[in-house]
Design brief:
It comes from Spirosoma linguale (strain ATCC 33905 / DSM 74 / LMG 10896 / Claus 1). This is Beta-lactamase domain protein. Belongs to the metallo-beta-lactamase superfamily. The protein is α/β, with parallel strands linked by helices. It has a single domain (2-285), classed as Metallo-beta-lactamase, Chain A (4-Layer Sandwich). 21% of the residues lie in helices and 28% in strands. It has helices at 15-19, 24-27, 67-71, 81-87, 105-108, 135-142, 158-162, 233-249, 282-285, and strands at residues 2-7, 11-14, 38-41, 44-50, 53-57, 97-99, 112-114, 122-124, 130-133, 166-168, 179-184, 191-199, 205-210, 253-255, 264-270, 273-280. Strand 14 and strand 15 (264-270) form a beta hairpin. The two termini are 13 Å apart. The structure holds zinc ion (ZN).
Length: 286
C-alpha cells in the first residue's frame, strides 16, 4: 500500500476560528494572519493505492458554490482534485473508493460536481467509486444543527445517496487490508480518521494516521489548541489526549489535513505535555 498526500489548497480561514480560545498574540507567531485576520491552510487529501483498489480520502471544497461563497476563502486557486488525480497517472474512473472523514464543505465539496457547462445537473466526481461515510455523520449532515448548518451543503453529498454510491463504514466493511478506522465526536458527530499499516523506509512496520480535523495542523498538537468550529470542545480535548498518548506509545506518523507547510509529524512527551517531534513530508518521515 502506498499513500500520496495531495494538497489542493491553499485556502483561507479565520485564524481566530481555527484556534478557538487561544489568543492571537500566541497563534500568530506560527500562523501569520492577513489584514482580514485570515491564515493560509492546506486542503490535503490522500490518494491510497492498495492492491486493485484506489481510494481517495477527502475531496477539498470542489467548485459548485458561487463566487461570493468562495471569495471568503480566497478560492479558486487553480488546483483541482481531478487534476491532481490525473497528474498522479489515473483517471476519475480508476477511483474505487472515496472516504469522507466528515461532510463539512472543505472535505466533501469535491465529492460531487456539475456534469454540464450550464451547471444544472450534479454527478459524482468519481463515477465508479463507493463513497464512504459514517451513518451518524450522515444523519448530522442531512439534519444539521444550527451551528453546523452553513458547512453542510446538501449539493455536496445528497446526489451520492440518490445515485446509490453511498456506503456507511459502520454498516458495511470497508474491507481494505491494512486500513482501520477511528471515530471521533468532538469536532462533529462520528468524524472518521483512517489508520494505515505501512512499511517504513527501513523495512519496519509503521502506522500512519490521517488526523482530519482532530489535529488539523502542527500548531494544533497541544491539547488546548481546539478549533472554534468544534461542537464538543471538551470532548475534543479528551479525544486528543488519548489519541496523542497512543501516537507516542505506538510511534505513529500523523498526517495533517490543513497544515500549510508540513504534511506529517511525529510526537513526543515533554515536560509541557505531548509536542511535535519531527515534521516534514510523509516520504521523509516514513
Ligand atoms: Zn471540519
Amino acid at each position: 500500500m502506498t499513500i500520496r498526500p495531495i494538497d489542493i489548497g491553499p485556502f483561507k480561514l479565520d485564524g481566530g476560528a481555527m484556534f478557538g480560545v487561544v489568543p492571537k498574540t500566541i497563534w500568530q507567531k506560527q500562523c501569520p494572519a492577513d489584514d482580514r485576520n485570515l491564515c493560509d491552510w492546506a486542503l490535503r487529501c490522500l490518494l491510497v493505492e492498495n492492491g486493485n483498489r484506489l481510494m481517495i480520502v477527502d475531496t477539498g471544497t470542489g467548485d459548485k458554490q458561487d463566487a461570493k461563497f468562495f471569495g471568503f476563502y480566497d478560492l479558486p486557486n487553480g488546483k483541482t482534485l481531478t487534476g491532481a488525480v490525473e497528474k498522479a497517472g489515473y483517471s476519475v474512473n480508476d477511483v474505487t473508493d472515496v472516504l469522507l472523514t466528515h461532510l463539512h464543505f472543505d472535505h466533501a465539496g469535491g465529492a460531487v460536481r456539475y456534469a454540464d457547462a450550464g451547471r444544472t445537473t450534479l454527478e459524482a466526481t468519481f463515477p465508479k467509486a463507493a463513497y464512504w461515510s459514517h451513518s451518524g455523520q450522515w444523519d448530522w449532515a442531512t439534519n444539521p444543527n444550527p451551528r453546523e448548518r452553513a458547512t453542510y451543503l446538501r449539493e455536496n453529498f445528497m446526489p451520492l445517496q440518490a445515485n446509490g454510491q453511498l456506503r456507511f463504514t459502520d454498516k458495511e466493511d470497508l474491507n481494505l487490508p491494512g486500513v482501520d478506522l477511528l471515530y471521533m465526536d468532538g469536532h462533529t458527530e462520528k468524524m472518521t480518521l483512517p489508520m494505515f499499516q505501512l512499511v517504513g523506509s527501513t523495512g519496519q512496520p509503521r502506522t500512519v494516521v490521517f488526523c482530519a480535523d482532530l489535529i488539523p495542523s502542527v500548531a494544533h498538537v497541544p491539547v488546548p489548541y481546539v478549533m472554534g468550529y468544534d461542537v464538543r470542545p471538551l470532548l475534543t480535548m479528551d479525544e486528543k489526549t488519548q489519541f496523542l498518548n497512543r501516537a507516542v506509545d505506538e510511534n505513529w506518523l500523523l498526517v495533517f489535513d490543513h497544515d500549510p507547510v508540513y504534511e506529517a509529524a511525529t510526537v513526543e512527551r515533554t515536560e509541557k505535555g505531548i509536542r511535535v517531534n519531527e515534521k516534514g513530508t510523509l516520504t521523509e518521515l516514513l
